[in-house]
Design brief:
With 226 residues, the chain is of the alpha/beta class. It contains 9 helices and 8 strands. Helix 2 packs across helix 4.
């Protein structure tokens, strides 16, 4: 079974996907981390992010693994734990650029589809239900106001003892939304058959409980898988 969870930055999809995967005993795949890992590696190799072919070569040759553990998921790129490195402001900015490159998306989408071979998965991102797995058995699209999403990211970064400004974060989220929704390749949008949720006024448990309820409805029914 494939559960696709899409949404913009700060919509809660990563936290929700992680808990859903734990409850279902499925693998959790954070595709955003894959784009950030490519962006990080490209910088390490001094590849110009405007060089689509060069960045695509990085994506093709990079090995990315998601390793579950007691303290959460570890992202391992080419044998190195890069989990903490992928959350810097620079990597966030670079990942938006990398994600807009058609050749890179083509390579990473192929890798993401290949992950289905390992068993049932909860995959989160921005084009899972529309491009990566359009025949996924369950599709969800989470969203919230930019102000609420900015507040969530602000509190998350504050918890990591980072100096942050709420207004700046909200503006960054608005800019990322603009890039994601208007890029030519795999723009951010809800699949026509996805269940859309506005999480602005919902806490994490409420979102998880609603999604679990929808997943458990007719659990043996295969939706759109023909």
């Amino acid at each position: 079974m494939i559960i696709a969870i899409d949404g913009p930055a700060g919509s809660g999809k990563s936290s929700v996907a992680k808990i859903i995967a734990q409850k279902m005993r499925f693998r959790h795949i954070n595709t955003g981390a894959m784009y950030r890992a490519v962006a990080w590696k490209a910088r390490q190799l001094q590849v110009d992010l405007s060089d689509e072919t060069g960045v695509a070569e990085v994506a093709l040759n990079q090995s990315i693994q998601f390793v579950p553990g007691p303290e959460g998921q570890t992202v391992v790129a080419d044998g190195e734990d890069v989990t903490s490195l992928l959350r810097s402001k620079t990597v966030d900015r670079d990942a938006a650029i990398v994600a807009s490159l058609g050749k890179v998306r083509e390579i990473l989408v192929a890798k993401q589809r290949d992950m289905e071979k390992s068993g049932s998965i909860v995959m989160e991102g921005r084009d899972i239900g529309t491009v990566v797995f359009p025949r996924a058995e369950r599709k969800f699209f989470l969203d919230a106001t930019p102000e609420e999403r900015g507040k969530r990211r602000f509190l998350e970064l504050q918890g990591k003892n980072q100096e942050v400004d709420l207004d700046t974060i909200i503006e960054q989220i608005r800019r990322r939304d603009e890039i994601d929704r208007n890029r030519k390749v795999s723009p951010l949008k809800a699949a026509k058959d996805a269940i859309c949720m506005d999480t602005t006024n919902l806490d994490l448990n409420e979102v998880v409980n609603q999604i679990m309820g929808w997943i458990e409805q007719a659990p043996t029914q295969i939706i759109n898988r023909k």
